[in-house]
Design a protein that fits this description.
Layout (H helix, E strand, L loop, with lengths): L1 H13 L1 H25 L44 H4 L2 H11 L4 H13 L9 H17 L3 H13 L6 H13 L3 H11 L10 H13 L6 H11 L4 H13 L3 H13 L6 H13 L3 H13 L6 H13 L3 H13 L6 H13 L3 H13 L6 H13 L3 H13 L7 H13 L3 H13 L6 H10 L6 H13 L6 H13 L3 H14 L6 H13 L3 H14 L4 H13 L7 H21 L1
């Protein structure tokens, strides 16, 4: 018996670890069953679902989530009209509500603030901290959503009860207005704040924002003052100098622009290519080409901050001044310094050589562009077409037009067709001009007044009266309004075709019908045409019409009298008499004035 007990004891001792694991596992299994039964019996967790309900997330109150104060439950759905007036008069409650609403419901925050004022809130009785928090929250929130006028109203409310303007609030307002591009509003808020004689602005960033806003709104009369105040608070930044350079350039003050670069050098402020190019453009616009060239040399000496825009700006100045040799030298200098000419560069050279009547050089530039693979455009082709047309080489102009049509990436525009139509009309190729008009319409382009005027002018030499009338009717049908230039061309056409009655009716009836204000020169033009054809009666009639609309000038009277004398038509009657009388009166008046 003892041996059996000993054997059993030894067996249990050897299995002690396994038995311990078995007991622990059994305990855990029983505990799990008990807890599972309790959870399934809880409401909202259906029995037998086999899933644990996810615990509700718990958040600690922080900056964006605070414990609701008394009466603050359901703040997002707060109805301003139902709030107890006593709460509205409570600064502590109001500041807390407004501050929270300003984060996402700015309009409701403003409504709550206005309701509080209406309920009798005394701003002057608020603690300084409460007043500052309320005004800062409302002003910054209103500007943030683009309601700068509401922000200004809050500042006016504070001023009305004798509270001083907070410099920190003004700084926040100006910075926010600038970032939101409310430039004019920023200046308005500043002007209001400055009515407080005790206000002192020591924040350099405020003056920087005001300077930028003044430049953006073209309030150039304030820029110098803002810049001086800025410098009194600290050293200007590169951006501040850049804004002053923009101001100087916009007002054509090239001397100030150059002095600003000197000031930047002395202050060891880096001058970038944008500032240099802006000053260079100011000098070129003022036709100070020597100053501009000196600035270019300074830019190169400063470390190579020049770019294609730099050279294009100066080249345009030389081209405008007719200095094409210097312009071309600048182009070669640009290439020697490793800069690749742009479309703008070639456009300047093309237009400059054409305006200088050097079509051959313009063609060389054009061929260089194509050889170097420069991307062509409609403007460049049209510029060369204009050059050939101006030189009377119409066939060459048409050839370039045909080459242009082969390019899929570009098509002729209204200006291109207008130049070609005029060129053909000028050399008497009216049929070719009409073909161009047809091609223009087929390209989906609408002829403008210039196109119709050129075609009408092309009808003069061969007295194409019927064609001219058709073109004029088409012009009106296309809703293209005729101008004084149009009627001047028609007068020349009628005079060439000896259609004097039509010419007089044109001035008497058609101008008023088209609501074109008649100019004295039209009457003078027709009167001279009548006199050349010895149409004295018609000339007198036209002169009478002129006096009904305006007083003839002394120069016009002298011209008409001179023609009467030259053609031995001093007996023309009222024309010579009235013109002579007007001339005598004019000369008498001038003599009296001189005396």
């Amino acid at each position: 018996m003892e041996s059996v007990i000993e054997l059993a004891y030894e067996g249990l001792y050897m299995l002690r670890i396994e038995l311990a694991f078995l007991l622990v596992f059994g305990f855990l299994w029983v505990a799990g069953r008990v807890l599972g039964t309790e959870k399934r019996s809880q409401p909202g967790n259906p029995k037998g679902s086999g899933r644990k309900a996810a615990p509700a997330p718990q958040r600690r109150p922080g900056l964006t989530q605070r414990r609701p104060a008394s009466g603050d439950e359901g703040l997002p759905n707060l109805s301003v009209t139902t709030v107890d007036p006593k709460k509205l008069q409570n600064p502590t409650w109001l500041v807390a509500q407004v501050t929270q609403l300003c984060r996402s419901q700015v309009q409701k925050a403003l409504e709550l603030y206005k309701a509080a004022l209406k309920a009798g809130l005394q701003l002057e009785e608020m603690l300084a901290e409460e007043s500052q928090q309320l005004s800062t929250s409302l002003v910054t929130a209103a500007i943030r959503v683009g309601q700068a006028e509401d922000a200004l109203c809050v500042m006016k409310d504070l001023r009305r009860v004798g509270l001083a303007t907070d410099p920190a609030l003004l700084a926040s307002a100006t910075k926010l207005c600038t970032s939101k591009q409310l430039f004019a509003d920023c200046l308005i808020i500043y002007d209001f704040a400055c009515q407080d004689t005790n206000l002192t602005i020591q924040d350099k960033s405020v003056w920087s924002c005001l300077l930028f806003c003044a430049v953006e709104t073209k309030g150039f009369g304030r820029c110098a003052f803002f810049f001086e105040r800025l410098k009194a608070c600290g050293a200007p930044s590169p951006k501040d100098f850049g804004n002053m350079v923009r101001f100087a350039s916009s007002t054509g003050n090239w001397r100030l622009a150059l002095s600003l670069i000197d000031e930047m050098h002395k202050a060891k402020v880096e001058v970038d290519s944008v500032v240099y190019n802006t000053v260079l453009a100011a000098c070129v616009s003022a036709e100070q080409l020597d100053k501009a060239r000196q600035l270019l040399d300074d830019m190169v000496a400063a470390g190579g901050v020049t770019d294609v825009i730099t050279y294009n700006t100066l080249a345009k100045g030389y081209a405008k001044a007719g200095c094409m040799d210097t312009c071309f030298e600048l182009y070669k200098l640009m290439r020697s310094r490793g800069l690749t000419p742009s479309q703008v560069t070639y456009g300047i050279l093309l237009d400059g050589f054409i305006n200088d009547n050097e079509v051959e050089k313009a063609v060389e530039i054009f061929e260089t562009m194509r050889a170097e693979g420069c991307q062509m455009n409609t403007v460049l082709y049209t510029t060369l077409i204009k050059g050939f047309a101006r030189a009377g080489q119409v066939d060459q102009a048409v050839k370039i037009y045909e080459e242009m049509q082969k390019e899929r990436s570009m098509q002729p525009d209204v200006i291109t067709f207008s130049i070609l139509i005029k060129a053909n009309c000028d050399v008497g190729r009216l049929e070719e001009a009409l073909k161009m008009l047809l091609a223009m319409k087929e390209a989906g382009l609408k002829p403008d007044e210039v196109v119709f005027n050129n075609l009408l002018g092309g009808c003069i030499n061969d007295c194409k009266m019927d064609l001219a009338k058709d073109l004029y009717r088409e012009m009106l049908a296309s809703s293209v309004k005729p101008s004084v230039a149009t009627f001047s061309i028609l007068i020349r056409l009628y005079a060439q075709c000896k259609r004097w009655d039509d010419a007089v009716d044109l001035l008497r009836k058609e101008l008023p019908a088209q609501r074109v204000v008649p100019e004295p020169r039209l009457y003078g033009q027709l009167a001279q045409c009548c006199l050349r054809d010895r149409q004295g009666r018609r000339a007198t009639e036209v002169y009478t019409m002129l006096t009904e609309h305006s007083t003839p000038t002394a120069a016009m009277n002298s011209t008409l009298l001179g023609m009467c004398a030259k053609l031995n038509m001093l007996d023309t009657g009222p024309l010579a008499t009235r013109a002579s009388g007007f001339r005598l009166l004019t000369h008498s008046g001038e003599s009296m004035h001189s005396a």
